[in-house]
Amino acid sequence: METMKAVVKTKPEFGAELQDKPIPKPQPDWLIVKVRATSICGTDVHIYKWDPWSADRIGAKALPQILGHEVAGEVVEVGSSCKRIKVGDYISAETHIYDPGDLTSMLGAFHVGKNMKILGVDYDGCFAEYFALPESICWPNDKSIPSVIASIQEPLGNACYAVLGEDADVAGKSMVITGDGPISLFAIGVARVCGVAKIIHLGKYDFNMEIARKMGADLQLYTNQTTAQERLEFVMDHTGGDGVDIALEMVGSQDSINDCFAMVRKAGRLTAFGIAPESPVPVDYNNGIVFKGCQIHGINGRKIFDTWYRNRNLLASCRLDPTPVITNIFPLSEFATGFEKMLERPRKSAKVVLFPDKAEYEAAAKFMKE
Amino acid sequence: METMKAVVKTKPEFGAELQDKPIPKPQPDWLIVKVRATSICGTDVHIYKWDPWSADRIGAKALPQILGHEVAGEVVEVGSSCKRIKVGDYISAETHIYDPGDLTSMLGAFHVGKNMKILGVDYDGCFAEYFALPESICWPNDKSIPSVIASIQEPLGNACYAVLGEDADVAGKSMVITGDGPISLFAIGVARVCGVAKIIHLGKYDFNMEIARKMGADLQLYTNQTTAQERLEFVMDHTGGDGVDIALEMVGSQDSINDCFAMVRKAGRLTAFGIAPESPVPVDYNNGIVFKGCQIHGINGRKIFDTWYRNRNLLASCRLDPTPVITNIFPLSEFATGFEKMLERPRKSAKVVLFPDKAEYEAAAKFMKE
Amino acid sequence: METMKAVVKTKPEFGAELQDKPIPKPQPDWLIVKVRATSICGTDVHIYKWDPWSADRIGAKALPQILGHEVAGEVVEVGSSCKRIKVGDYISAETHIYDPGDLTSMLGAFHVGKNMKILGVDYDGCFAEYFALPESICWPNDKSIPSVIASIQEPLGNACYAVLGEDADVAGKSMVITGDGPISLFAIGVARVCGVAKIIHLGKYDFNMEIARKMGADLQLYTNQTTAQERLEFVMDHTGGDGVDIALEMVGSQDSINDCFAMVRKAGRLTAFGIAPESPVPVDYNNGIVFKGCQIHGINGRKIFDTWYRNRNLLASCRLDPTPVITNIFPLSEFATGFEKMLERPRKSAKVVLFPDKAEYEAAAKFMKE
Amino acid sequence: METMKAVVKTKPEFGAELQDKPIPKPQPDWLIVKVRATSICGTDVHIYKWDPWSADRIGAKALPQILGHEVAGEVVEVGSSCKRIKVGDYISAETHIYDPGDLTSMLGAFHVGKNMKILGVDYDGCFAEYFALPESICWPNDKSIPSVIASIQEPLGNACYAVLGEDADVAGKSMVITGDGPISLFAIGVARVCGVAKIIHLGKYDFNMEIARKMGADLQLYTNQTTAQERLEFVMDHTGGDGVDIALEMVGSQDSINDCFAMVRKAGRLTAFGIAPESPVPVDYNNGIVFKGCQIHGINGRKIFDTWYRNRNLLASCRLDPTPVITNIFPLSEFATGFEKMLERPRKSAKVVLFPDKAEYEAAAKFMKE
User: How many CB atoms lie within 10 A of CB D143?
Assistant: First the structure.
């Protein structure tokens, strides 16, 4: 049996180990991918830390399990009933393994159905030389997109869907985007290239605020150096007293949720993307929703594959340059350093990408320098 | 100076008086309407009771003021700069007097702008033989619609907009509608004639539950005889375990809000119409919005004049019969009895319509019997 | 090998034969259905007649081939990789066998992709006791819907998608619907139950005009007894001089296309469903499209499975009664009589349904009488 | 009576004259604007040439009449019933003077109503030091936008509405744009800044093709050096064989219409903006509309004021730089040279802007050099 290197969660405690594991074989409608680049998501960090969410969601019984779900790689083997994807295809993986018989799937909202399984959470993930995934969630990449970029399309897709919402009507509008994480930073870039005419960013870490400016933020506010009232007045001052057309809540904190409901204008749109540490959350129901006549779009995942298509086009055309958000790259074997970067506070990183293969790593290092 | 009978709020306390008042003269872009029928809104009841909201919103200094804003009547005089409406037109009044220079107005969302004034709240209303209103909010009625029906188009418009939401995509879908008030009952009727295929009504008063059935509710739940868990299970049982496509929150209570966020399916739509007694309101932000990927439409007023157009067509074609909701009619002089009916608990009424003119009253009485 | 009765196109000429054929076995992602009811489509009539379209589209080399694609039946065997559908499920078949790797499929528009295959055209169809189809196009029926009704959901879906268009925004609007065929008649029914407030029907055969009235047409015009100018004036007279909000072109003739482009109001919507006998077609591009600022929705097939979902709900709730359109039912063995009915001119039929099983036929005969 | 300089169409023949005319006085809901910059539209050229369209649309009886409708200026006097706009406001003019009582206006589609009047066609225009217009069509400009830019917002609005269509869903999509005129060139710029990921431009004049590249065209085809088949193959080659997501027909010629219907992908969108020299136009109805399942948006004018709002934001933020399209500026007195530039073939100009005031002209000259 052939083996591969993989980052494995072995015990219900902080950390993970690099182990030799058998290279997986595909079920009939799954396929096997040789990983070229794979990036670390906040979900991976939760599992790495083995916080209460992971202990509950995954559970000690499921271990050992390979981490990771953000990826770009080459298909090396396909199951007998695969139809769309062929050996040699350069693909990325949608994380959400949907149930095709679920009503929301049958109605086209594949990303939020019942019985959803998650790559790297319910199945072995892609922090490895090879991994298995169902054909249904494979997205064929444009060959011109480097693997380091292709690997981050999944979180970029979150950003793209959050910015565009259900209707993709953003051109010439104003937008507040909250948060310092990679998805907030990607969202600023997407908003910028998709014609959002005024981007107001709310963050708190110098390192990430600078990336936000590179991605295209027009105006910025430090949430840890201002009051809610000051932030609201700032936004009103820069929007003729009306508030922004669209507010993207990407933090999940009470303060950020309050900011967004206050800052969005009448008949505007609020994207609810951030997950609150505790729910229910007190929300200004009367003034923030009913009297405002606004629309709230709960955003989870990405549209399959509408978001992927737009992402691919924006990347392949070089309209969108996500490289400022990719702050660190490492060989897969140095995954622990990658996780350390992700855990550092105040933040000194955004997106961290890992490479099982040395040549890929070196090519990415060269690309990132240019 | 000619005078007219009018129902006037004279003092900052419970009640109102029938008084002789001068017939108003129009400003250049206003016009004068002879009232044929006028119905009592919950807002009128607040003002009649002079509850804390009225004391704060209107204030004792504004008194005396004529009540009322739901109306049908005939234009008897137009200001010098009126353009659309002519003497003799049979009109109803949109309550929201929008500021044409406000951004949301300029973008077409006339119903939720800044600087909004309300007929019967910021100006003398229509519980009178005549009243004045700006031409901008006049809607020309179809002559075939009796005045008793035409007068209730404003709350029917609330119902129509709440049911249809921003996109009017309801055909063949399932819907929960909460509440016993006239707007909930109208909403059931609108949903029924617009192709909602399963209407689940949540109410509590026998009298109104029966009207709801006449209006087209398929299934009903008494909220005062069931637990939240029982209600949720009932809805899940009748929707294949998915929840309803659309939930209309029309009460504003914590229980009703919770019901709606729980009952709407993934990728569904929730209409937030009811006003909460206190805001902020705890909302299941994570599971009810973000993970559900649903859309929330805050609904206030009616689309000007999109909703009025649909309403008119549904009424003129007799597709929609709102008469079961019109439970009481009185001459205007018996307004106090009308308010008593509205205040009775348990509810024994829905919509109450008043008529300044005896012949109109008698015609309506005859119509309602048929 | 077990055999079954099937209606087979054996030769490239008018007609078909009832033959014994082997019961098919499923490929891994296909399944086998025992047919309970199957209805005759215009496409089947083309093939039956072996007109130039069939000779070109199917070709003599493909014969013998079993006809039919409108169906309801019970799953009796599933291929090894089927996931959604189980033996015993009561299903209907979407006719369009889409390529999952096609871009439009990946973007959710499954019904218009490249490489589309058609049941009963590219594969053996369902005018038989059993037939095979891919799991991907199976729709699970509500058990409460009789097979005679369930079989016509495919053309009813055409009607539903044509009426609702891309946005399903029809409530309270006015609509012109052209044509005498079953899909026009179904469309009238769908429009009626989905809140279209004024339905103007343009047809020419007495028999079908009467069905149109039963389905809910408010106003009718004989196209063979009026001039284009008379028809336009009639529509303008009944729409306040504006034209209809929505025009459904379901014939494809130059006259009908001209009528629809003339009758739709400014900023209205025109559904292009009918197929022209010859294309290109002269269209009033300037006044009918550009200056009118209207939207034209090309409609082909049905949304998979959004339309099916709405259809099922409208039928299961009995909101929509399609039985007036089902004018004839026969045992499968009397298929030739069914085709005769379809070919008769002036039309004396609309939808014809066939039943391989005698008991099913008798149950349907009883149901249709009630 | 005070007088002003104005470019007046005096006789029903080629040309116009600079004359002294009285400065207009406002009606109650009109206002007077001191012109800072005014640009020449193709419509002005038609009238200047006095072609058959002008002779028919305006007629000799209406002369003398002042030309022009694209403008930026300062309000110097307001009528007695004006509400939104004040003396000193810096405004531009929507050309379409809509009837507020028309149904389409009442439904929010102000730009395509009945009884539409056009500035500079039905009324004296703005090729003058002062002109009058109704308050209803005034758009308040952002003070930071130079008058030379603010004056071209009306045709830029055409471009913006044509690109965004009814739904503004363009981000990450591919687009064909046809034509060499200023609106085609503006459309390329709008598409570029609004996230269209691949812009394929079809034109024929070197001078304008170069501007198109500056505005952001990714790929170009000379329509006078290629066959329809070559153009289609080129587009298919650059879109994976699917065709473009969106095609903007901005010429109106049979060839350009054919190109666009052929090049748009299944389930795509075609914007019909160009006006055909003769209508009806043969259109590939079956394959280009019905079987393709595409949507056609007839686009005329601009959304009032949704398009203006987006335009203003894109310009004020400097996201969109329209200056490459502004090829010539002249003092108003040199209007004849401006018209000559517009009439030159092969084209050697795009947008020409005129300035009644010398200081404004010099400021614009300086701005354009930077």
Answer: 9
* Pick among D169, D244, D265, D266 to test the A interface (most A CBs inside 10 A): D169
Does the predicted interface ipTM exceed a cut of 0.90? Answer: yes
Q: How many domains does chain A have?
A: 2
| Collapsed DSSP state (helix, strand, coil) of residue A180 | coil
The residue segments making up the domain with residue D161 are 156-298
D314/A195 CB distance under 8 A: yes
**Contact call for residues C37 and C352 (beta carbons, < 8 A):** no
Q: How do residues C11-42 score in pLDDT, each as one tens digit?
A: 999 999 999 999 999 999 999 999 999 999 99
3-state secondary structure A252-281: CCHHHHHHHHHHEEEEEEEEECCCCCCCCE
Of A167, A190, A195, the CB nearest to D193: A195
Active centre residues of B (catalytic): 43, 46
What letters, b where the CB count within 10 A reaches 16 and e where it falls short, cover A290-313?
A: bbbbbbbbbbbbbbbbbbbbbbbb
Residue A300, SS3? coil
- Residues on chain A bordering chain D, Cβ-to-Cβ distance under 8 angstroms: 160, 164, 167-174, 190, 193-195, 197-198, 218, 309-311, 313-314, 316-317, 319
Subunit partners of chain C (3 or more CB pairs within 8 A): A, B, D
B-chain CB neighbours of D91 within 8 Å are none
Does A65 share its domain with A121?
yes
Mean pLDDT across chain C, nearest whole number? 97
Comparing CA positions, the residue from D24, D312, A242 lying closest to residue B104 is A242
Classify the phi-psi angles of B347: left when phi > 0, otherwise alpha if psi is within -120 to 50, otherwise beta.
beta
Report if residue A307 sits inside a domain.
Answer: no
- Asked whether residue C37 falls in the same domain as residue C142, the answer is yes
Mean pLDDT per block of 10 residues along chain D (370 residues) reads 94 98 96 98 97 94 97 97 96 97 97 95 98 98 96 98 97 98 98 98 98 98 98 98 98 98 98 97 97 97 98 98 98 98 96 98 95
Distances (CA, A) of A40 to A95, A149, A151, A153, A326: 13, 13, 10, 12, 11
CA–CA min distance D12, chain B (Å):
33
* Partner residues linked to C66 by β-bridges: C8
Instruction: Give pTM, 2 decimals.
Output: 0.98
pLDDT in tens, B246-286: 999 999 999 999 999 999 999 999 999 999 999 999 999 99
- CA dist A70 and A78 (Å) reads 20
Alpha helices in chain D (DSSP H): 42-49, 52-57, 103-106, 147-150, 153-164, 182-193, 206-215, 228-237, 254-263, 306-316, 335-343, 358-369
Same structural domain, B140 and B217: no
Chain C hits for A309, Cβ within 8 Å: 103, 106-107
A167 with A140, same domain: the answer is no
Q: Is residue B195 part of a domain?
A: yes
| Residue in B with minimal Cα distance to D140 | B101
User: Closest partner residue to B290 among A109, A272, A294, by Cβ?
Assistant: A272
Both C8 and C103 in a single domain? yes
Q: Residues C105, C216: one domain?
A: no
Task: Indicate whether B306 belongs to any domain.
Answer: no
Is residue A52 domain-resident? yes
User: What is residue C370's predicted lDDT score, i.e. its pLDDT?
Assistant: 83
Q: Give me the CATH number covering residue A364.
A: 3.90.180.10
Distance, in Å, from the CA atom of B319 to the CA atom of B321, rounded to the nearest integer, reads 7
pLDDT digits (tens, 9 = 90+) for C145-154: 999 999 999 9
B206: CATH: 3.40.50.720
pLDDT beyond 80 at B1: no
Quick: pLDDT tens for A291-331. 999 999 999 999 999 999 999 999 999 999 999 999 999 99
Q: Do the Cβ atoms of C108 and A108 come within 8 Å?
A: yes
User: Is the per-residue pLDDT at A72 higher than 80?
Assistant: yes
